[in-house]
Specification:
Strand content: over 45%
Order of helices and strands: EEEEEEEEEEEEHEEEEEHE
CATH architecture of the largest domain: Sandwich
CATH superfamily of the largest domain: Macroglobulin (MG2) domain
Distance between the termini: 50 Å
Largest sheet: 6 strands, mixed
Helix content: under 10%
Number of domains: 2
Shape: elongated
Structural class: mainly beta
CATH class of the largest domain: Mainly Beta
Number of helices: 2
Radius of gyration: 22 Å
CATH topology of the largest domain: Immunoglobulin-like
């Protein structure tokens, strides 16, 4: 007798999913990923799945496909058992996207696709440099962001490095902070190389914006 295949009630991507008081809460549900640099790795990320019905044990797998349906990432399957399992959360350490475009996340049970959703990757344009006149106006405005910092954790030795961008090029950096290298690449003391192009672009997008924060804007990058 064939096993009863469960019905997929929900299959979505979000920044994080947490269980509290018996319920799963999904934060930051999205279908579009924006980035300045490709290839890129998107994180943090979680995949939430909700089932209804079903009997027996299945091998569950979520694969990443390109726009033509070619498999890019197919992690090892996980065993799920019904009717006990109603909800599942898959923590994704990093979703690797080779280029802008449309991608599909395919949910399969025992090798049979039961649900597919799309994720669109968009390449953002880097803002042009300020003219002398624009820079003068921004520096005179008390509500503009004058400095932004990015905290970068070394992927090899876990050292914390702080890079700072000032709206005023003559303003000194905060103690312990470094300027972004001109090449946008940084080599840690341990020898690990870090691509800072995305962190630099995010900081550049924030600097000069009208937010009037009480503290310097900070971003954490890995």
């Amino acid at each position: 007798m064939a096993k009863q295949l469960p019905e997929v009630k929900a299959f979505l991507t979000c920044d994080r999913a947490s269980r509290q008081q018996g319920k799963i809460s999904c934060e930051g549900i999205f279908t579009n990923i924006n980035g300045y640099v490709y290839p890129r790795v998107h994180h943090p990320m979680a995949i939430y799945i909700s089932y209804m019905g079903g009997e027996g044990e299945y091998s569950q797998r979520v694969s990443l496909l390109d726009s033509k349906g070619q498999v890019l990432i197919a992690p090892p399957p996980e065993k799920v058992k019904f009717p006990k399992l109603l909800e599942a959360v898959i923590e994704v350490q990093g979703l690797e996207l080779p280029a802008p475009g449309k991608y599909w996340l395919s949910l399969s049970l025992d090798g049979r696709e039961v649900k597919r959703i799309f994720v669109t990757a968009t390449e953002l344009a880097v803002r042009k440099p300020f003219t002398d006149g624009e820079l003068k106006e921004l520096l005179a405005n008390p509500k503009t962001v004058k400095r932004v910092r990015a905290e970068v954790e070394c992927k090899k030795c876990q050292r914390q490095h702080v890079f700072q961008m000032n709206l005023d090029p003559d303003r000194p950096l905060d103690k312990g902070a470094m300027a972004f290298p001109e090449s946008k690449f940084f080599v840690c003391e341990c020898g690990a190389s870090h691509d800072l192009r995305e962190a630099w672009a995010n900081c550049w997008q924030m600097i000069g914006s009208v937010q009037a924060p009480e503290k310097p804007e900070e971003r954490k990058e890995k």
